[in-house]
Write a structure and sequence with these properties.
The protein has about 400 residues and is α/β, with parallel strands linked by helices. The protein contains 13 helices and 13 strands. It folds into two domains: about 200 residues, 3-Layer(aba) Sandwich (Rossmann fold), CATH 3.40.50; about 130 residues, Beta Polymerase, domain 2, CATH 3.30.460. It is elongated, with a radius of gyration of 28 Å. Bound molecules: iron/sulfur cluster (SF4).
């Protein structure tokens, strides 16, 4: 049994990748049949029979996580019809021989994929379908994505493409059949570790903690996160300058409906009803009461809560670090009306939770806590939603390093 990847050059602990491909096929029935006197003569070659059976019953366990999964589904449909080569898709690892990994695998998903792989009986094979499964593709350097499923389990067939079409999957299965036959005949060359391949598979930018990483890059990344914006702001007015009304984007220029204007102004003390940078700002300690009032006025759909991190600015424009949390509600039915407002929070300040007013706020607030790090006071179960429980930091904060290392998965 070959065990790869146990430890790495940078001293980080990695989970072992176990390749059981070289193990002998073992089954009580197989042993019995081999010992029946004369049976091998009768069938000419029991091995040939078993090979034939193995090659023509490659049942797939689908690990379809994103768009490539649609092509996998299409391959099982009538035009390509995988059934005709004895390949059917089973939604259980215990009755499948081939895991087809079709789609992006995230750090949160990787341990589940590995557990399912370990539940598949031997002999088993893996197909990496599409460039996300092969290498992480354009998500490769993202904090949450595993840079190739072969860092988690041994892969037998790689099917390139974004996405590969069903015919390509069919071709991959035909090549796998050849590989099964070669392995059964003992003619498959042993796995060849090629250190040179590491240079090809290494991420384009060395990750944090990698000794090969240029330290200047950390500084550069921090500067660009703290002082620059990913949006083109070249047409924005300098601080203090007013933008002419006809320059305002529609969503920002539009004022709340008249009855909401009156409510915000008279009951919640909002003086600026159409600020140039977004929705009206409401005091954090009043916004639960506002949500209740709006709900009573027919705004019964909780559309979103979205938090944004604004890091401290130290360049030409100086501004302290802050968070903004935007909310939107909608009325039900035809001619639906939308109302939105914002909270401005200091670092460490909590936003009162709206779960008591709208049940739908539960998961949305958890998501914002998970990704941006805004806490919601009074939330009944504020824990991570998207990222694994042991994840460090909040990846949508502007000062979060995009290539943060997450051993052992990336
Ligand atoms: S390889 Fe392309 S089609 Fe397949 S999962 Fe990735 S992005 Fe989607």
């Amino acid at each position: 049994m070959a065990v790869n990847g146990n430890g790495s050059g940078d001293g980080r602990k990695r989970l072992p990748v176990v390749d059981e491909g070289a193990l002998a096929y073992d089954h009580p029935l197989y042993d019995t049949l081999l010992n029946v006197p004369g049976l091998s003569v009768a069938t000419t070659s029991l091995d040939a029979l078993l090979n034939w059976g193995l090659m023509n019953s490659l049942w797939i366990f689908p690990m379809a996580t994103s768009c490539c999964g649609i092509e996998l589904m299409a391959a099982a449909a009538s035009r390509v019809d995988l059934d005709r080569m004895g390949t059917i898709v089973r939604a259980t690892p215990r009755q499948a021989e081939v895991m087809v990994i079709a789609g992006t695998i995230t750090v949160k998903m990787a341990p589940r994929v590995k557990t399912l792989w370990e539940q598949m009986p031997e002999p088993k094979w893996a197909i990496a379908m599409g460039s996300c499964a092969i290498s992480g593709d354009f998500y490769r350097n993202l904090y949450a994505v595993v840079p190739g499923i072969d860092t988690v389990l041994p892969v037998d067939i790689y099917i390139p493409g974004c996405p590969p079409n069903p015919e390509a999957l069919m071709q991959g299965l035909l090549r796998l059949k050849e590989k099964v036959a070669l392995r059964r005949a003992g003619k498959l060359p042993p796995h060849d570790d090629r250190p040179g391949m590491l240079d090809v598979t290494r991420p384009s930018i060395a990750r944090l903690l990698d000794p090969a990483r240029d330290r200047a890059l950390d500084q550069q990344q921090e500067d660009s996160a703290l002082n620059a914006s990913s949006f083109d702001r070249s047409d924005e007015p300098e601080d203090g300058e007013e933008r002419a009304p006809d320059q305002l984007p529609d969503a920002i220029a539009s004022t709340p409906p008249a009855e909401i204007e009156a409510l915000l102004r008279d009951e919640f003390g909002v003086t600026e009803l159409a600020p140039k940078d977004g929705a009206p700002v409401v005091a954090a300690d009043k916004h639960v009461a506002l949500a209740r009032r709006l709900r009573g006025m027919g705004y019964q759909i909780f559309v979103y809560v979205v938090a944004t991190h604004f890091p401290e600015k130290t360049g030409k424009v100086v501004a302290p670090e802050r968070f903004e949390v935007a909310y939107a509600l909608r009325t039900v039915g035809a001619g639906s009306k939308l109302v939105s407002w914002r909270l401005k929070l200091e670092p460490g300040q909590e936003a009162p939770s709206l779960v008591g007013v709208f049940a739908g706020a539960d998961w949305q607030e958890r998501e914002q806590w998970d990704l941006v790090g805004v806490r919601f006071a009074g939330h009944p179960d504020l824990r991570r939603l998207m990222m694994p429980d042991n994840w460090e930091g909040h990846p949508l904060r502007k000062d979060y390093p995009a290539d943060k290392a997450c051993p052992p998965w990336r």
